[in-house]
Specification:
The complex is a heterodimer of chains A (809) and B (159). Chain A is of the alpha/beta class. Helix content of chain A is 46%, strand content 16%. Chain B is an alpha/beta fold and 159 residues long. Classes of the chains: A alpha/beta (809), B alpha/beta (159).
Chain lengths: 809, 159
């Protein structure tokens, strides 16, 4: 019984040149130059992504933030920004936000909100108020009325002191006691005839008198002490009276000026409260505001001339009253750029800050609107991702340094009021990052519920080719390039299909399109043309490739010099030309690789030498195992699989990945088994499944062109060609040079569906199909393979019996 | 015709004088470029007499605390008063770009005061109470100009 096998025995014909490159015909657009083309439909090919972004914009729920997914250069920023700006322009501007001094706790600045446009007006009003206060308060203290009242208070104090002093002195004089002043106090001593008496004179006095003198001095001392003890109270009362006078004078000056501002902002209770606090503060500190021009103090914090600065307004974010909602793109979302920062000023060697140095970040600038951020940049800036999530969850922005947020430092600093946050965040990034966040950040899905996945390609049709041509024309106009003629536009569209590696699709990767257009424009200008033609595009492509093709040329040169052994003529048993793709800095090129196989009797082991030495990747190893399984299932299914085979990529030292060589590897093994040589003027690429069916591979254009380049270098003779999977034919967008060679009969591209198709072309011998008896036709490759495997099985059986009898004997 | 400038101005100083006011009063006299300015510090022994009494105390202006007023304390106060007066006069003279000499006498050094008063174009500037101090009598007797500065920490001893 045989396994289900897909096979054929007829050699597939070479592909017609129409299959090698799908051309673009824009004749239906009726234009000669790109500047005659209209703009394309908006967001060509991105309907799903634009619908998603619009949905996120319109959703009322704040957690429906969006992530725009697409590779760098896919115009993801332009698309998101355009849609968001359209929406923002129809929405009202959000509130203005200011920070003002919290006069009761200066470490906690107060946040005040205003209708759009009024924040700036309030700042200016306060500025004018301060200017007025600077003049009005000192002027009030300069007035005769104030001076008169102050003099009265001072006089009352002096009079009281003098009266007390005089009363004491009179009392002492009556008792014949003198009160002498020393630099630090008073000394009481007895007098006789106006002079202080000394100890000798004192002793001469009667004892009774001496006792009385001492008693009088003791009493007077006590009274003097009592007077001295009352002095602080007297002075305090004096200061209070002056302070109260200052308050009264200041209050009158301030209330008159504040009245107008208070009236203007009467509808904003928090603002009114702040203005009340200013009034109280000025009155409380009236004496500091007396000087019209206070002399600068070396310590700025103590500089009276800067006292008024504490009432200034820090306008954090403001909007024009007639503007729409804000749209902010923050290209550098470092923590402080996103959340905000508290700046410091160096003064006398110390770093100082206050509420006026609090700065808004992108979150606050976008508050009430839209914020666009790059995921990768967010994730690579320290602390930013967590801070963003925290702000979105809490729906407020708390401006503090990262060190404070994470408890790394404990220096006293500002704790500004948090500001309510309501905005829509649009993240932009690659799919892998989105996938990683979905997998590993459980909070991500709660905040970013809309994915806008940009299409990479646009299916080709006449309509879409035409629309794409208009897109090309629009890009040319936007970039200010020379107009392209119709053939050049057609050529651009074809190149976009080549960029997509699919003749039926057009790449929507806009950066490479822009680069191609700009380079073609350059070469057209270089030759003094006013219109870009296909030759300019050719030159642009050639020059671009030439700049990056050093390695490719080196490989080709080594093959020509036969340092790298690749045969392009004759035939060999167990040796085949596979095709590989290498990539350097985004530039891909194909080149042939020699694959060889050896076989002998064994126990069913196929050795992948690449895998044995750890140069084979996982996918390559998988391909080898499938290949082994296909081989065992296909031939001599009733006999033990008695093959020992090995396969290797010759002169390959850098590792092999992918399964696109599995057809070549299987053909090399079958050639070795059947002893049917393989034509070396051909190369093959394709993967194979367990049933011998050939499957698609990547990089098909580069692979075909890689073998073509080598054959061309050695001289095309019409025998050269490449065999590719049939399903890859739709991906062919070969260079025109290759297409021309095929058209001239110098080169050929074959397609295959099964391993038998490949064997037939590669050996020039029919692969052979099983007949009704389940047997391959004699002389066919498959017949020879099966015969060899059966022979191995028989030999192995005999070998086993012989070994067994020897063992028992 | 304007009066000629004085030849000498004597400024009478005591321990409790306000140097600034005495200085201003002295400059207000007919002081010319050649006028000699002399500060005469007449040491008063009242502090020493008071300190000789065993029961006298100094009452501090700050808080009214008491400390025994000893002769050592009186001496120290006396020396400090002289040093302070001299320093203040030197500073004021420097600010006015003038020179002043400074002498310390006792209550009994009347001969020196008489010598000073002998100069016809001399004047005496001092607190009001010096009129009651006999050492300056020669200025009054010779009818020299005497300028009294009121409110000069008058010595309570005289009461």
């Amino acid at each position: 019984m045989t396994a289900s096998i897909e096979s054929s025995s007829t050699s597939p014909p070479a592909l017609p040149i129409s299959s090698l490159r799908r051309t673009c015909d824009l004749s239906s657009l009726r234009f000669e130059r790109s500047d005659q083309l209209q703009d394309p439909p908006p967001h060509l090919g991105q309907q799903r992504a634009t619908d998603a972004i619009r949905f996120a914009i319109q959703m009322a729920d704040d957690s429906f933030n969006a992530v725009v997914l697409g590779p760098d250069g896919s115009n993801r920023h332009g698309l998101a920004a355009e849609l968001v700006r359209d929406a923002a322009s129809t929405r009202p501007p959000p509130e203005d936000w200011c920070y003002v001094n919290n006069l009761e706790d200066q470490e906690r600045p107060r946040a005040l909100s205003f209708p759009a446009g009024e924040g700036a007006a309030f700042r200016d009003d306060l500025r004018h108020l301060i200017e007025d206060l600077r003049l009005a308060i000192p002027a009030a203290f300069e007035g005769d009325e104030y001076r008169g009242q102050l003099k009265a208070i001072d006089s009352a104090m002096e009079s009281e002191l003098e009266e007390r002093q005089q009363a004491l002195e009179e009392r002492a004089a009556r008792e014949n006691i003198g009160i002498m002043q020393t630099p630090t106090g008073f000394v009481l001593a007895p007098l006789r005839e106006g002079k202080v008496i000394d100890e000798d004179d004192f002793r001469k006095l009667p004892e009774e008198e001496r006792g009385k003198i001492q008693e009088d001095i003791r009493h007077l001392t006590q009274e003097l002490q009592a007077q001295i003890e009352q002095m602080p109270q007297l002075r305090k009362r004096h200061r209070e009276e002056i302070k109260q006078l200052n308050r009264t004078v200041t209050s009158h000056a301030v209330s008159v000026l504040l009245h107008e501002v208070k009236d203007k902002y009467a509808s904003l209770p928090e603002v009114t409260t702040f203005l009340d606090a200013i009034e109280r503060d000025i009155i409380e500190n009236a004496e500091h505001f007396r000087e019209l021009q206070a002399s600068p103090h070396p310590f700025p914090a103590l500089d009276a001339s800067r006292l008024y600065e504490r009432y200034e307004v820090n306008l954090l974010v403001h909007h024009e009253a007639d503007a729409g909602a804000p749209v902010v793109y923050e290209p550098n979302p470092a923590y402080q750029n996103l959340i905000g920062r508290i700046e410091h000023k160096a003064e006398m060697g110390a770093l100082l800050t206050d509420y006026r140095l609090v700065r808004a970040g992108a979150l606050l600038r976008a508050n009430g609107g839209f914020l666009i951020l790059d995921i990768e940049r967010l994730l690579t800036r320290p602390f930013v991702w967590e801070a963003l999530k925290q702000a979105l969850f809490a729906r407020q922005v708390r401006i503090e340094s990262p060190g404070d947020t994470w408890g790394l430092v404990s220096t006293a600093t500002l704790r500004p009021d948090p500001i309510p946050l309501r905005l829509r965040v649009i993240l932009i990034g690659e799919r892998r990052l989105y996938d990683l966040l979905c997998r590993y950040d459980s909070e991500f899905g709660e905040l970013f519920k809309v994915a806008a996945d940009l299409e990479d390609e646009l299916p080709r049709s006449e309509d879409n080719d035409n629309a794409y041509a208009r897109l090309v024309a629009a890009r040319i106009r936007q970039a200010g390039l020379l107009p392209f003629d119709r053939q050049a536009v057609e050529r651009v569209v074809e190149e976009r299909a080549r960029d997509a590696e699919d003749s039926e699709r057009l790449s929507l990767y806009m950066r490479s399109l822009n680069d191609l257009l700009a380079q073609a424009d350059h070469w057209a200008r270089h030759r003094g043309a006013s219109v870009v033609e296909t030759r300019d595009l050719d030159q642009a492509i050639e020059e671009h490739e030439r700049r990056l093709s050093r390695i490719q040329m080196r490989v080709l040169d080594e093959m020509r010099r036969e340092t790298l052994l690749i045969d392009t003529s004759g035939s060999r048993i167990g040796q085949i030309n596979g095709l590989s793709v290498a990539e350097f800095a985004g530039y891909r090129f194909g080149h042939p690789v020699r694959i060889t196989a050896t076989t002998r009797m064994g126990t069913g082991d196929l050795v992948d030498i690449e895998r044995e030495v750890d140069l084979g990747g996982a996918i390559h190893s998988k391909g080898m195992l499938i290949l082994s399984s296909a081989l065992a299932a296909r031939y001599a299914p009733s006999a033990p699989f008695s093959l020992q085979g090995s396969v290797v990529f010759e002169q390959s030292y850098g590792g092999v990945e992918g399964d696109s060589a599995s057809v070549a590897e299987l053909c090399a093994l079958l050639s070795s088994l059947s002893r049917v040589p393989i034509l070396q003027n051909l190369a093959v690429t394709g993967s194979v499944n367990q049933h011998g069916r050939v499957q698609v591979v990547g990089g098909i254009n580069e692979k075909v062109e890689g073998f073509f380049d080598l054959c061309k270098a050695r001289g095309l003779d019409g025998s050269h060609g490449v065999i590719i999977p049939r399903e890859n034919v739709n991906h062919l967008m070969l260079k025109q040079e290759v297409v021309k060679a095929v058209g001239d009969g110098q080169f050929a591209v074959y397609s295959m569906s099964t391993i038998d198709d490949a064997l037939t072309v590669l050996t020039g011998v029919p692969a052979g199909e099983r007949d009704e008896r389940g047997e391959f036709p004699p002389g066919s490759v498959n017949f020879k393979v099966e015969r060899q495997l059966l022979q191995y099985a028989e030999t192995r059986k005999e070998f086993g019996e012989h070994t067994e009898s020897n063992g028992h004997g | 015709m304007a009066d000629a400038a004085l030849r000498r101005v004597v400024i009478a100083v005591t321990e409790s004088s306000s140097i600034v006011r005495l200085w201003q009063a002295a400059l207000a006299c007919r002081v010319g470029a050649t006028t000699d300015l002399l500060a005469l510090f007449i040491a008063d022994d009242r502090w020493h007499r008071a300190a000789s009494l065993s029961f006298t105390h100094e009452i501090s202006r700050i808080g009214g605390t008491l400390a025994v007023f000893t002769p050592e304390r009186a001496n120290r106060l006396h020396r400090e008063a002289i040093r302070q007066a001299r320093r203040n006069f030197d500073q004021l003279a420097a600010e006015s770009r003038r020179r002043i000499s400074f002498e310390v006498l006792t209550q009994t050094d009347t001969a020196r005061v008489e010598q000073l008063a002998a100069e016809p174009r001399s004047a005496l500037v001092g607190p009001e109470f010096i009129l009651r101090s006999p050492i300056y009598d020669s200025f009054v007797q010779r009818r020299r100009r005497v300028v009294l500065v009121p409110g000069q920490g008058e010595q309570h001893e005289s009461r």
